[in-house]
Design goal:
92 residues; mainly alpha; Helix Hairpins; 4 helices; 73% helix
Amino acid sequence: MAVSKERKAELIKQYGKDEHDSGSAQVQVALLTERIKGLTEHVKFHKHDHHTRRGLLMLVGQRRRLLSYIKKQDIEEYRRLIKSLGIRDNIQ
C-alpha cells in the first residue's frame, strides 16, 4: 500500500538530515517499514494474493540489505533505528 504524502513527510523529517533528505538509508528503511506494515495487513486479509506476497518479500529483502549497510557503517545508528521502528535485530 502507498504511504500518504503527509506520513512520508513526517518520516523524512524524523529520520532524515533535513526535510529534503529522502535518499539516506535511514529514511529509506523507515519508508520501507511503513509500506511493509500496510502490505502485511493486506496479505493477512487476502491470503491468496500471491503477487502482493512476492512484492512484500522483495521489500523485506531490500530493507534487510539497507539495514545491513547501516550496521556496517555505524552500529549505534543501526541500534537506534531498529529500536525506534520496532524491528527485530536479525542481521548477521
